[in-house]
């Protein structure tokens, strides 16, 4: 199939809160774009040392780069270097970039400098923000400030998880978003049913450019909220002594997490287990646990790689202790041995953006 190639790389930044559905959407978009014969690259971004998102995004066949250790906005030169190296190596038609779920001021500190300083290299799409459809109606009363701030920056709001909403729920969600960001287009969609994804694909491939000018908010307003949510990440090798149920293992980890913290404090916890024989990915957002994918078989007795990422409102020491216990207890409860455990756990420190709007 011949595909029209645009001379510039289409650059789409897709922001939104923890657990809203960004990675799932990027994977769905990448698969469709690949099926059309287009090259796709995904840039993932987070604070820890091993990302569930990166492993999952690679499963779409896209070239995936991760930027670790801080938000795009404070590592803009690295972000740009990554994008340019992607352009040279895999010549993507489209780059999809996912900032950290608690990122703020992405429009002014990432999208704006990209479009103003590199218009010859990149066709920068309007800034898209994914909003969890099941949480949209509560945005204005949410005690957290970051989710509403992110919505206000959007040029296009992608309203996710509409498979979980009835018509009334969809209407309320859209009303709440329109009240926060009257100038944005709203596209309801579901990564589960596929509804609305073609519309998003159309926007991704259009030549429409980002144009919104909005000064960033004083980032110090958000520092306390960002650092109240600690980050934990761990990897381990699992050596089964008998056959293990990959789905049972991920479920057991998430069940233990759900029992250890109040629902509202669980921003997003992700687990993947991957071996030659089996693979499973699961997520917990608040009290909603979902199987995101099973690959290969469900059972395995070969050596497997476990990755756990958690973002929870708790002091980092407590999050670390709880998560470490949950991981190490696996070998008490199941016929397996754990080896090569790596771990990082911390509260994110305030970041200094590379570009501040207006300066
Ligand atoms: N029902 C439903 N679940 C979704 C949808 N999109 C994402 N999810 C689930 O929401 C959870 C968080 O998704 P993820 O893409 O990791 O969110 P991110 O933190 O924004 O990247 C996962 O369990 C996904 O399977 C959707 O459209 N419908
Ligand atoms: Mg993600």
Describe the structure.
The mean pLDDT is 91. This protein is an alpha/beta fold and 359 residues long. It folds into two domains: 9-217, Rossmann fold (3-Layer(aba) Sandwich), CATH 3.40.50; 228-346, Alpha-Beta Plaits. Helices cover 34% and strands 30% of the residues. Helix 1 runs parallel beside helix 2 and helix 9 (246-260) packs antiparallel against helix 10. The protein has helices at 22-35, 52-58, 76-90, 106-117, 146-153, 167-180, 197-205, 220-228, 246-260, 316-333, and strands at 9-16, 40-46, 63-68, 94-98, 122-124, 128-132, 156-160, 185-188, 229-240, 244-245, 266-274, 278-285, 288-296, 299-300, 304-313, 336-346. The chain starts with 8 loop residues before the first strand and ends in a 13-residue tail after the last strand. Strands 1, 2, 3, 4, 5, 6, 7 and 8 form an eight-stranded parallel sheet that branches. The structure holds guanosine-5'-diphosphate and magnesium ion. Guanosine-5'-diphosphate binds at residues 16, 18-24, 101, 130, 160-161, 163-164, 190-192, 268, 283, 285, 290, 292.
